[in-house]
Amino acid sequence: MRGRVMAKNLEDVLGKSVVVVNKSGAGGTIGAASVATSAADGYTIFFAESSLLVAPHLNPALGFTLSSFTPVAPVGALPFAIVSTPTFPAKTVAELIPLLKSKPGQFSYASPGVGNIGHLSAELFQQLAGVKLLHVPYQGGGKLVADVMSGEVPLSFISVSPILPLVRAGKLNLLAVTTPSRAVFAPNAPTVAESLPGFATATNFFVLAPANLPPAVRDTLAAAVKQTLRTKGGRTFAAQGCVAQRRSDRELREQVLKSPPAGDKSQVPISSHSSTPPKATANTRLLLKVLITWCSAGKRVDRVITDPARRQLSGPPISMVIAYAPGSGTGVIGRVIAQQLGAVLKQSVVVVNKAGAGGDRAANVAGSPADG
């Protein structure tokens, strides 16, 4: 939606047709790869967000790096929120932390996908708070929100825009927002940092183009983006909960082009509010030993695999079919296995839930190619 708003306003500013091409899937990396290999002539641009900065560290075999892009202009930041089903016993972060500490690993949370800023926010929260949660990644937000409302998954770290109407209607409980200060669109909602100092995350939106874009073309596009944000486009973003971006073009270029390269195992600050490097945590869940080092939104993520016998796969993502609904016992365990398999194999593992008919709906795996 935000990309279409930007496209419409760019049309008005540039006086040229701007066509939106949706290339979803694999956490946004399919669309990113197509832009990375496009001509650097200004006629193909990418409406990107913070997850792109994480993607090469989750999967170095994507076919592109951050140097495959020319940063054009920052757009804005979208705060995330911690929400729960209305019947969840903790109503604030101050109540949530001791509850989670008393029952480590017994509560699950939903995110819009592995590597999404909601996922990274939850990992940062667990590190700073000293708690343990079970991650249930979804393919997008629709089913996720429905499952949190029903209590199928009790908690979620999710962007604020789709949940504000549900919070106001009493269908979700908003525990806190993830920005350093309270949000203008929800002034009564506390920040996570009020109970957990040093915590701050958000999704940053920015416009990129293929690498080696001529500086004159880059400057023209950057000026057009800034002009849209000063007019109707900026007001539309604000109505969706997006905070105006205060970074300069130079700061964006530094963030994108100077991020540590994929495979660099050195640690970086866990957030802009702390110079303390993250503590690596050993995750032995389901016998898959993976050392995970998380960094905050807009930084980088490394996964160091402890098994030296791991193998590198190439090609499309692996599909893991689960014969039960997301949030069910089998569904949760299957998603954990898929997440850790992806880390061990260094390959995307996509969960496909095919619930119903006592699991028979998933039987079409028997007719799939035997290619792994």
Q: What do you see in this structure?
A:
- The structure is a single chain.
- The chain is α+β, with helices and mostly antiparallel strands and 372 residues long.
- It has 11 helices and 13 strands.
- Strands 1, 2, 3, 4, 5, 6, 7 and 8 form an 8-stranded mixed beta sheet that branches.
- A hairpin with a 6-residue loop joins strand 9 and strand 10.
- It is globular, with a radius of gyration of 21 Å.
- About 15% of the residues have low confidence.
Please provide the ordered H/E string of secondary-structure elements: HHEHEHEHEHEHEEHHEHEEEEHE
Mean pLDDT: 74
Q: What are the segments in which pLDDT stays under 50 over at least 5 consecutive residues? A: 260-314
- Per DSSP, the total helix count is 11
Radius of gyration: 21 Å
Shape: globular
Instruction: Please indicate the percent range of residues in DSSP E strands (runs of 2 or more).
Output: 15-25%
Structural class: alpha+beta
Compose a concise summary of this entry.
With 372 residues, the protein is an alpha+beta fold. It has eleven helices and 13 strands.
SSE map:
Layout lengths: L1 H13 L14 H8 L9 E4 L1 H8 L10 E16 L8 H10 L5 E4 L5 H13 L4 E4 L4 H9 L4 E5 L4 H5 L4 E5 L24 E9 L4 H16 L1 H8 L3 E2 L4 H9 L23 E3 L6 E4 L8 E4 L12 E5 L6 H17 L3 E5 L19
Parallel strand pairs: 3-4, 3-5, 12-13
Antiparallel strand pairs: 1-7, 2-5, 2-6, 2-7, 2-8, 9-10, 10-11
Keywords:
single chain; alpha+beta; globular; 8-stranded mixed β-sheet; 372 residues
